[in-house]
Every structure is written in C-alpha cells, then in structure tokens.
Design a protein that fits this description.
Strand order of the largest sheet: 8-5-10-3-2-1-11
Mean pLDDT: 83
Shape: globular
Number of strands: 12
Low-confidence stretches: 3-20
Number of helices: 3
CATH superfamily: Jelly Rolls
Strand content: 35-45%
Largest sheet: 7 strands, antiparallel
Radius of gyration: 17 Å
Structural class: mainly beta
Helix content: 10-25%
Order of helices and strands: HEEEEEEEEEEHEHE
Distance between the termini: 54 Å
C-alpha cells in the first residue's frame, strides 16, 4: 500500500457539488490554529471554528474552545446533535444525565442528544475541542458572539451569558432546551 500525501486545502460546498460527494474519500482542512477571522468571543470564551457545516456538507462542525473558571454553560439538552468534547488543557467536570465525569487533558466526553448536560471549568483555564454532529450548533455560537478582537479570552470584566433572554427565545430554533 502506497501512502499518498495530500496538500491540505479547503473545498467549498459549491466545489463539492460539482465534483460529487467529497466524503467518499478523506479530506483535509487547514484554516490555521490561530485564525482570528474564524474566531469569536462567546459568553466569556474564545471559540475558533476549525470546520463548519458549510465545509462538511452539514455532517459535523469542529470548534476549539478556550474558557476560564466560572465560564460554565447552564444545564441544557440538544435535540438535534451529539457533542463530543476532547480536553486539551485544564480540568473540566461534565454532568451528563445522572453521571459526573472529570475531564483532564486527553479525556474525551461524549454528550448524546436528548440527554441533559453541562460542564464546570475547575482549573483557571481550559482548552477543548468540541465536535458537533451533525453540524448546525456552530450557528448558535456565531449568533450569540462577537468577532474576537485578539486570540485571547475576552476581558474578564465582560459577563458571560449576558443575553439570556434572547438565548431563551432563540433556543427552539436550534433544538436547544435549557434545563434546571
């Protein structure tokens, strides 16, 4: 078997439609780890969109997320997609249904759709990869964020989850339910 080396390049959805199903073979993406034009400040965290639904024909989205202690989402349920977190740095405690899982670097946590979940960042900072399948939830993060001004966390004095009422009103459009 001969190994083939492929130059990483982004294939847009319009190119893939003309060339057939791009997922019949492997494909590589390269937007750069520190891509300011693909990064947002979302409720106190820095999120970089490594792959979006537009680039994967809606199959998945991959996001790098960096957050600080106290920057924790409320318990919620996804009705449309599964989430998988891979902890790169820091300590994060995930609540999934009636289970609690401590995530440290190298830990992968699967959060299935229709199951209540949340997480708490226990270290001063945490960095994770977030895989959402199928894609779509990345549009939620984009709607409730602002373009990152730098590849850093937003200023610490900016409150997280400050637009709660608007989030509650929009949740059903994204198949989200906030739980208690």
């Amino acid at each position: 078997m001969t190994q083939q080396i492929i130059d990483l390049d982004v294939i847009s959805s319009s190119e893939s439609a003309a060339e057939g199903d791009i997922f019949a073979e492997s494909i590589g993406f390269s937007h750069g780890h520190q891509s300011l034009d693909r990064s947002v400040w979302y409720n106190g965290s820095l999120m970089t969109f490594l792959a979006t639904g537009e680039e994967t024909q809606g199959k998945f989205a991959l996001i790098e997320a960096v957050g600080r202690k106290g920057n924790d989402p409320p318990p919620h349920i996804h009705r449309r997609e599964d989430e998988t977190f891979y902890v790169l740095a820091g300590e994060v405690v995930f609540s999934v249904g009636d289970r609690t899982i401590k995530g440290t670097p190298g830990t992968m946590i699967f959060l299935p759709r229709d199951v209540r979940h949340s997480f708490t960042i226990e270290s001063e900072h945490a960095r994770m990869l977030l895989l959402v399948a199928p894609a779509g939830l990345e549009r939620w993060f984009k709607e409730f964020s602002e373009p990152a001004q730098a590849m850093t966390l937003p200023p610490a004095n900016e409150p997280g989850y400050q637009d709660v009422q608007r989030m509650l009103e929009a949740a059903s459009r994204y198949g989200l339910e906030f739980a208690e």
